[in-house]
Amino acid sequence: MTKHPVLLTLQISAALAALLSVVQAVLGFQIVAGTWVESHGMIGNITFVVALVAAVAAFLWMRRSGNKGLFMHAAGMAVIALAQVALGEMGLRAAHIAVGVLFLLGAVALATLSFRKPGVVDAGPVPQERLQG
Hints:
- The chain is mostly helical.
- 80% of the residues lie in helices and 0% in strands.
- Helix 2 runs antiparallel to helix 3 (68-90) and helix 3 (68-90) packs antiparallel against helix 4 (93-116).
- The longest helix has 28 residues, at 5-32.
- It starts with a helix and ends with a helix.
- This is DUF4383 domain-containing protein.
- The chain crosses the membrane at residues 41-62, 69-88, 94-115.
- Keywords: Membrane, Transmembrane, Transmembrane helix.
């Protein structure tokens, strides 16, 4: 049985966001140790875009499967990634590091959830009554 393309997109983008966050942590430790790594900022921007793709895919998957929790987690990760980029650009090092650790944990959790508990595809889009709180 093949996976739904939206679910596959969600899983790939979530896994890529988790992988990029690990790379960012390694590069961040090098910067703290005194080695300047110029690619940290560029990879941070790419990580934000990948987190945004995951959030859009999670929204589309929520419409098919009804899994609101996965969507909310993915949307939260995109917001945290945006805040992380902003903190880095503003030079707020301590806050940037703290939020970076939170993003790393959340990105790994999102990737895990997207593979382990993605929800089940119904025949069509989820009825509006099911999506409302």
